[in-house]
Amino acid sequence: MTEHEQTGIVTSVGSLGVDHAASFDRSYWNRPVLYEDPIDLQHDWHSFLAESLRLGRRRAMFRTMVAPDVMAEIRGRLPVEAALPVEENFLTYIGANAHLQTAIRAELLGVQPRELVLPAGYILDFATQDTDAGQLFSLWGQFGWTREGVENMITAGTTPIVIIRDIEERAIATMIAESLEFGDQILVELTEMAVADSEKGHGLASVLIRELARHTQNYFGGSPITYGEYNMTTGAHRSAMRAGQLPANSFSDGVLRDHVSIETGPGNVVSESSWSTRWLHDFMVLYQGSE
Question: Are 42 and 78 contacting, i.e. CB atoms less than 8 angstroms apart?
Fold first, then answer.
């Protein structure tokens, strides 16, 4: 059990190494090495996938660094789902599911960045208060958070966060950033974006993404790889595009298929399998370009 699991804090960015007991019936491998030989990459992916299938896991996801000439060679040979540029190389997601697609296919057409202004009556904040626990839990319960996990996060005070408050200073929209040392790079994932139902339609999601991306650049220093995995069922990927983020679609459409389960939308047609697939969704990977 990880430290986050012990404290009830939900993590999205994951940890280094192979985890065949990752959430939502997945096998996950974060491997911070640079592949410069396509044969090595194919061997490691197929070995990892075979073990995942042997263990009865629903989905296998391999994330690693790949040289550009290798990317060109594996295109069409390995199931690359997303790839985002890191200097001259690519942070690459290779993924496969052990079942047919169940997530409702969403629109892939992009939207243009736009000028974002926080509407009148809202307050931007980058700090939590003890009184936020109930409001944050109501926003994050859909992601598997517990009230205890939210309280532990607030007490620790080490998670970069952006909160939009209403005129009464209640937390009505929020997003956090998680980090992972990935070789000589720092991955910063913008995640757990949520807006109260009563406050949707005012462009708050895009404001959250823009402000947290800027905040993390200062928080982590240097040039972290800042990205997000955005739920396509809720249209979160379009909010990220409006905030200026770029799709990781150089070698594919940038979509993680049936990636994780969140109880939102109408739900999927349940497939005949041993896994729970009703609430699985596709997620698009988008990253922060240089401003």
Answer: yes
Q: How remote is the C-alpha of 290 from its chain's centroid? A: 20
By the 8 A CB rule, do 23 and 260 touch?
yes
Number of neighbouring beta carbons within 10 Å of residue 257? 19
DSSP structure class, residue 278: T
Rounded CA separation 66/32 (Å): 10
Beta carbons of 103 and 97 less than 8 angstroms apart: no
Give the H or E element holding residue 287. strand 280-287
Domains of the chain by residue range: 3-108+246-285, 123-228
- For the entire predicted model, the pTM comes to 0.93
Distance from C-alpha of 63 to C-alpha of 189, rounded to nearest angstrom: 14
Name the packing angle between helices 133-140 and 147-156 (round to 10°). 120
Give CA–CA dist 231/79, Å, rounded.
20
Per-residue model confidence as pLDDT tens digits over 50-86 = 999 999 999 999 999 999 999 999 999 999 999 999 9
- Check whether 143 has a pLDDT greater than 70: yes
Quick one: 123-228 is in which CATH superfamily? Gcn5-related N-acetyltransferase (GNAT) (3.40.630.30)
Residue 148, pLDDT > 90, answer yes
d(CA 111, CA 127): 31
